[in-house]
Design a protein that fits this description.
Oligomer: single chain
Bound molecules: ligand G3I
Helix content: 25-40%
Largest sheet: 8 strands, parallel, barrel
Shape: globular
Number of strands: 9
Number of helices: 13
Distance between the termini: 44 Å
Order of helices and strands: HHEHHEHHEHEHHEHEEHEHEH
């Protein structure tokens, strides 16, 4: 008993002190507007950081598994499913009255090579790959039936110029692989929402490739509920007008719109590395890691203003925007410390490395309070 009580009390005390006297939280402030989510990973669940889980339950009302539901994690070998970590995430969410987002069913990345091959290493036929896809989706979505609000069914299937990404899915199955994935997901959990998710799909050229995907599914009567705009953004890009316009355009198709992986990079980064094309990286240089000792006030202010402006736009569209998920719990957990350049010290989120509330946090809360 004592073993459980002491860490629990410690976590509670730390939590109280980190939140100071601020009674509101992100999820409370945005109640009635949209869900506020975060990405949950193994480190949070491991207990090595006792603040993580209570803090998540307090600030957020939805969670996405950062990696646990990706094919290579949840289905690492033919016929072998590893649900352990993802189950813990779903259990935690349910105990705390939070929504769960399933990420992700079909992606070109983090999908093992065997998925596309037979036992001899030969490329699968269309029919065999479709059967494998159906089995995977039915098993994973079926496992969480009734417990997941919505699934990122297809992730990152469009290139920057709007053409379809040349993936194994496209090569072996053909263009209708997306239709099939949405159909299988709907069969496996008829009540789950189904999303198309991508990065940079607020940009006009890429949007022009995503919109026909949505329209095609709609024209065939295949369920699609929403479009996820990942939101791996920067201090200087994208232009807020582009975000505004893209939400309006997806909403006009009847889509729910979600910002699914939000953060704002503050470090010098060449524009060809904007987005989330994880196959691209750049070598570390000290000159590209200027804020190791702390974020200068001037940059903190830019970050704050940018978050405030973004949430003003999201609130303006709160009839269409149903969720905003931050891609990481606090600055220390962000993938942006290691991509596209490894080993940097980034500050892209609303909480600092000690769970302190950053000025951007207060600005985001203030935007919601302004319109109460
Ligand atoms: O868990 C292993 C650890 O055991 C090992 O020592 C270490 C050595 O590299 O790797 C660890 O796994 C890493 C994992 O993140 C957990 O930190 C993987 O190498 C690394 O590839 C993985 O990166 C994830 C990336 O997707 C690729 O799956 C990031 O955490 C995750 O934030 C990122 O998320 C994606 C979205 O799913 C889709 N949109 C883009 C977004 C950013 O890339």
């Amino acid at each position: 008993m004592k073993k459980i009580l002491i860490p629990a009390i410690a976590a509670f005390v730390i939590l109280l002190s980190s939140c100071g006297s601020d009674e509101t939280t992100l999820s409370k402030a945005y109640e009635g507007h949209f869900l506020i989510g975060t990405a949950l990973n193994r480190m949070h669940l491991s207990g090595t950081d006792p603040q993580a889980m209570p803090f998540i339950a307090q600030q957020f009302n939805s969670v996405t598994a950062e990696n646990a539901m990706k094919w290579e994690r949840i289905h690492p070998e033919p016929g072998r499913y590893e649900f352990g970590l993802a189950d813990s995430i779903v259990d935690f969410a349910e105990k705390n009255g939070m929504q769960v987002i399933g990420h992700v069913l079909v992606w070109h990345s983090q999908t093992p090579q065997w998925v596309f091959q037979d036992s001899l290493g030969n490329q699968l036929t269309r029919d065999a790959l479709l059967e494998r896809l159906r089995d995977h989706i039915h098993t994973v979505v079926g496992h969480y039936k009734g417990r997941v609000l919505g699934w990122d069914v297809v992730n990152e299937a469009v290139e920057e110029d709007g053409s379809l990404r040349k993936t194994k899915w496209l090569e072996i199955i053909g263009e209708d692989y997306m239709e099939k994935a949405f159909i299988y997901a709907h069969e496996a959990d008829p009540d789950a929402e189904l999303y198309y998710n991508d990065y940079n799909n607020e940009e006009r050229a890429k949007r022009a490739g995503v919109i026909p995907i949505v329209k095609n599914l709609q024209s065939k009567g295949i369920r699609i509920d929403g479009v996820g705009i990942q939101g791996h953004w920067h201090l200087d890009s994208p232009d807020m007008r582009v975000i505004d316009e893209s939400i309006g355009e997806y909403a006009a198709l009847g889509m729910k719109v979600m910002i699914t992986e939000l953060e704002i990079n503050v470090l010098p980064t060449p524009a060809w590395l904007y987005g989330a094309e994880i196959s691209r990286t750049m070598e570390y240089r000290d000159s590209l890691n200027p804020f190791v000792a702390g974020l200068p006030d001037s940059v903190q202010t830019q970050l704050t203003n940018r978050y405030a402006e973004l949430f003003r736009i999201l609130l303006k569209h709160d009839d269409a925007v149903t969720r905003v998920t931050f891609w990481g719990l606090h600055d220390g957990y962000s993938w942006k410390n290691n991509w596209p350049i490894p080993g940097r010290t980034n500050y892209p989120l609303l909480f600092d490395r000690s769970y302190g509330l950053k000025p951007a946090y207060h600005a985001v809360i203030k935007e919601a309070e302004k319109i109460k």
